[in-house]
Amino acid sequence: MPLKLSLKPNESFVVNGAVVRNGDRRGVLLLETQARVLREKDILQPEDANTPAKSTYFAVMQMYLLGQTDGPALRRVEAALAAQLEVLPAGVQRDRVLTISAAIVAGDLYGALSACRKLVQDEAGDR
Fold it and tell me: Which of 29, 43, 48, 88 could form a disulfide with 5, with the two C-beta atoms 3.0–4.6 Å apart?
């Protein structure tokens, strides 16, 4: 089943590492094969990774966009997750970190990124 992206005018997204921008009208894009896709609204800039949860999200996002499940990208994610476990009390947020870790081990980088989004939302709700 293809992935259908409904795009706003001038919205950008990343497909397998390439940044693509929609034209000046709404558009629909169908991806017929497996690809690493991330919409502009889900891309976190390095300077915005200024909290523990956002740092974790950024590390997992890089891993997802690069399609790397080992090497330096994995080490950055492991360090970010370890830092999260040190500061989080037991509960839902800690369980999210474990879910992220399990998804990465299973090779489900998009699932890990989705769990990271929830972690960032939890962190924002704490403030």
Answer: 29
